[in-house]
């Protein structure tokens, strides 16, 4: 029986396992069991080969953090090598230009300081007064000498407002309240800006040619000593001082190259008449409101000083009117002043302009003594001032009338809105129709009058 059963299954092959049930593990069905390699421990690991090819060519070796010279080369600073010379050049030019301007300003104050100290009690912004510590340590006499020597130093007389602008100040003189001095220098510290301003002046008349100049403005007391100086008139020395008032007018002697620009820029000079004078150089002209004023102010000393100054002279203006067009009544109040404009010498030699500078400082004395004219000569001048005042007053009245009209219209509108708010819808409709008819009649009436 056993042989019979064995004979039935002897020719059959072993069954094949179907992979349709789990296709994901079909690849691993006949894989052999992994066997460890010979001579290798199961606890040792080996690094897998890198898929990227490594090389030390062109790479910086690792160094300490402070060894910068081992990690960089000169090629890393090519951009800085191009920029650094320009930066150094700008710094050198700026330092040279500012020092050059400071040297020119110091040279000017050294040349004019003796004249200023002779005419004024205080020159510069440092007050000549000994401190309490100096008096306690060295005594009053030595402290006073130290204060005077410190105030006489050029660096204490000048004040640098900008690299191309220096200022100083003087006060303490009879008939003069104070004087402001401004030195305008070239922009040597900025060649591009200096070249640009010079180039623009060639194409536009509104931009004047840059020029190094002195601009001085002197403000006389004009009988206002008690208002400006505290305690004036209380001591015996000030009670005997004569009256420093003089008539108000506009007078100017200026270079013809500046005549057109100054007449357009300054309102006070637009009130004058221009006329050449036989005693003055041909390149100068006189702008005055009256011939009597010209004869009085054009003294032989002034004519000689202008001739000595030559082309360095620009303008000398005596005025009591504002430089800008007055727009309010407060602007028409006379404020007397004397302006002087002189070109600075490129060589530092101011012997030719010192006589004119000294005459400018002493001009208030001549105005106080001789600046009183006949009533006939001042009639036209006063009439011009009154015309300007009446014109401003008329404009002021028109502005006030316009404001009153606007306020009245605003009040009427508020009253109308309140009245409409208390009405019903029908009453509002009737009121608006009557208002519209009233406006149409008014418009038709205006058209009829125009026709």
UniProtKB/TrEMBL annotation:
Its main location: membrane. One of its GO terms (molecular function) is calcium ion binding. Residues 395-442 have a biased composition (Basic and acidic residues). It comes from the Eukaryota. Residues 395-451 are annotated as: Disordered. One of its GO terms (cellular component) is membrane. The keyword Nucleotide-binding does not apply. The chain crosses the membrane at residues 79-97. Keywords: Membrane, Transmembrane, Transmembrane helix. GO terms for biological process: endoplasmic reticulum calcium ion homeostasis. It is a single-pass membrane protein. It is found in: Membrane. This is DUF1682-domain-containing protein. It comes from Pleomassaria siparia CBS 279.74.
